[in-house]
Amino acid sequence: MEKEYFTLRQIVCMIILFICGSSVVLGGSSEAGQDSWICLIMSQIFAIPMVMIYARIVQIYPEKNIFQVLEILFGKFAGKILTALFTWYSLHLAALVLRNFSEFIAITSIPETPQLALMIVMGLVCVHMAKSGIEVFVKWSLVNLAALLLLMFLTIFLLFNRIDVTNFLPIMEHDTKTLFAGSYSLFAFPFAETVLFLGITDHIRKEDKPLKVFLLGEGLGALIVLVVMLRNISVLGAAMLKTENFPSYSAARIINVSEFLARVEGVISTNFILGGITKISLCLITACKGTASLFNIKDYKTIVMPVALCSIALSLIIFSNTMQMFNFLNVYKIYAIPFQILIPALIWVWSEFKAHFKEKKADKPA
Amino acid sequence: MNKKIVCLLLSLILLLSQTGCWSYRGLNEITIIAGIGIDLDPKTKDYLVSCEIIDLTSTGKESGTKAKLVESRGKTVMDAVRNAKKRLLNKLYWGNNEVLIFGNELAKSGDIGNVINWFLTDAECRETVCLVVSQEKTAKDLLSIYGLDNSVVAFEIKKIIADDENVVGTMENVQLFQAFSILNSPGRSLALPAFRDVKNDEDIVAESNGEAVFKGDKLVGYLPPEESKYYLFAVDEIHGGILTTSSTDEDQTDVSLEISKSKTKNSYSYENGQLKFTIKIETEVAVDEMKPGVDLLDEDTLEKIEQREQKMIEERTESVIKKVQTQYNSDIFGFGNMIYKSDVKLWQQLEPEWDKIFPTIQVKVESKVNIVNTSFLKHS
Questions:
Q1: For B177, which of A108, A236, A263 is closest by C-beta distance?
Q2: Which residues of chain B make contact with A169, given a CB cutoff of 8 A?
Q3: Residue A264 falls within a domain, yes or no?
């Protein structure tokens, strides 16, 4: 079987869609009220170096994914442990996003339908996506990024008469501590979640510069989240933003163009479904690749279904109610540190060290 | 081949289960609410909910939309709303609800925060519902009458509020999410449109009657329409309406000016513990009515009218602000909020004492009226 490759544009689109996926609906962190957008910009201080580390790993080991790299670097045993950890993270994240999705739909649209039904339907779509291979997946991202952007600008356009710039005042009311806490939450969710792309980097060609790919995707993704955040703050105001579970959805509910064009909040749901499917599928693919490498299975596609069932089951049991889901965001930023920062940093430092060592060794015999 | 047939049969069976939507509700299964009034029983502290529902049984092509009233009571708003089902065929549907009316008693007791929160929490209620305070005894009194043009009085109230700022200029349209924001932002109090019942021809109809002034979530008083117009000037929410004045120095009112555009700019200064606010109002008006025999092209005449009008706006706005400061002590003009937005440190310093500071604020109103046209006539 021939190996599938991304083009540069495809993977950038995928990263953007991945970042926007659930955060455009959940609205990111809002504890800083009208200063949230400052948090977002500040979060890039953490996010950009981190993404550069991810890119550097890909650069050192081109056409390899994180699981292969782990095995090369740390040998069979330690490599497998780290692989298992990282696989767990992607499986867990898939379950989390799935749960976000089903809770959102259950609260906003169809409260009587059991969430399991929603999860299974959504899960099956993602299974199909993961099974059809990377090539189908990236094409889907390309089309859907266009749809997502179109819908987003539509809501901004329709909300234009509702925008009140004084909602941004007073700027920098919160102290630096709150701002940093907020920006760190935004770093953990969604920006550093791009670490999951390390699971599919074996599909990036050697010639494509990974640094450019990652930075471009991350930067544009941040820009879109920023625009969404500015929209929500200026339309809803700080007080509403702080209380709302789904600020984007509420903002869309306010749209009313002379009684004629109203009730378009379905647009936001559509955004979420499109972004959510991308995010879950990617988590699934990474989880499958991890599992495959863990058990020495040749083709990850054969185990997509069981892995997906695991994550559906997991998503059912991780929270007993919605409040836990929203509270988990506070725990999540600490919980994610090993996977988002420690493991990649370890790989990076160790591989730089090894490369350096190799060079010296190569120099010596001469 | 066999496999194909089995697959086909299986998918046919699957198709059978896909014939309807889960939790689908048809028109015959919902009761559409047009407006809701909420009262508080002074004795038992129960919530009394009156919903104006669209009467689908008698609504027809010729007769137009008809409405009915459903009443229920409960310990909480949600409880009362669900209790309505005890006497209804179908569950109430909130998606089309247009107005939320607070009874006088409820507003005075300070429970509107509760009610607003319930409306925001519930998934079916929309954030854009208009809020109204009933000046009658109960909110039900407003809903139990018929509208003048539209037999659904809730729809009529909603339209009256929505059009007011462009036509009459006595009310501010505050929607649910905005009310929540105002209640939860520092240095700002809520003012909501007030409605009353009046006799018109033979029937009783609903009429807007200025603004209801809140302090926190308690109703403290009303501003009649003559005063609420100048409240709108102060908060820059006026886009239409009529100003009257006299063309001569006598007291007789004989000129109408229609507002076509108005812009208000507020600024403040803080010196030696004294807050001073300056309100600059710039208004464009058109002459719409004039006593006969006046040359409307004469600059002097127009300038006199402009000046008289300016003086009137200044005096009346200042007196409304004075009234709110002394009688209600409620910052509906958002002076505190303005300080909070431009100078957080000063606000943090003033906030604990704001109730004492607010009545002492010196407000200066500067008005500029420009007559931009005189409609069809050169002479009147």
A1: A236
A2: 341-342
A3: yes
Give B236→chain A minimum CA distance, Å: 13
Residue A81: which residues within 8 A CB-CB, separation 6 or more?
A: none
CA A73, A76, A80 angle in degrees (round to 5)?
A: 90
> Residue A165, class by beta-carbon neighbours within 10 Å (0-12 exposed, 13-18 middle, 19+ buried)?
exposed
Nearest to A240 among B181, B341, B344 (CB): B181
Who's near A297: CB < 8 A, 6+ residues apart? A291, A303
A130's enclosing H/E stretch is: helix A115-131
pLDDT, tens only, B123-154: 788 888 999 999 988 888 888 887 777 778 89
Beta strands at A261-262 and B99-102: parallel, antiparallel or unpaired? unpaired
Q: Is the pLDDT of residue B247 over 50?
A: yes
In a domain, A359, yes or no: no
> Which chain B residues are Cβ-neighbours of A173 within 8 angstroms?
344
**What is the span of the domain harbouring residue A136?**
8-347
Cα separation, B144 vs B206, whole angstroms: 10
Contact state of A170 with B340 under an 8 Å Cβ cutoff: yes
How far A253 CA lies from chain B's nearest CA (Å)?
A: 7
CA distance B172 to B162: 9
Write the pLDDT tens digit of every residue in A164-199.
888 888 888 888 888 888 888 888 888 889 999 888
Token pair, residue B258, equals 């229609």
pLDDT confidence of B367, banded at 50, 70, 90?
very high
Which of B127, B340, B342 faces A253 most closely, judged by CB atoms? B127
- A267: in domain: yes
Express as a percent the part of chain B with pLDDT over 70.
97
Residues 6+ apart with CB under 8 A from B290: B247, B254, B255, B256, B296, B374, B377, B380
- For the whole model, what pTM was predicted? 0.88
**Would residue A205 count as lying in a domain?**
yes
Q: How far apart are CA A86 and CA A290, in angstroms?
A: 7
pLDDT per residue over A78-105, tens digit each?
A: 999 999 999 999 999 999 999 988 888 8
Structure tokens at B40: 């508080």
User: In this structure, are residues B157 and B130 in contact, taking their beta carbons and an 8 Å threshold?
Assistant: yes
**Are the C-beta atoms of residues A19 and A222 closer than 8 Å to each other?**
yes
The CATH number of the domain holding residue A214 is 1.10.4160.10
Q: How many domains does chain A divide into?
A: 1
**ipTM here:** 0.84
pLDDT at A366: 45
Does B155 have pLDDT greater than 80? yes
Low-confidence ranges of chain A (pLDDT < 50): 1, 366
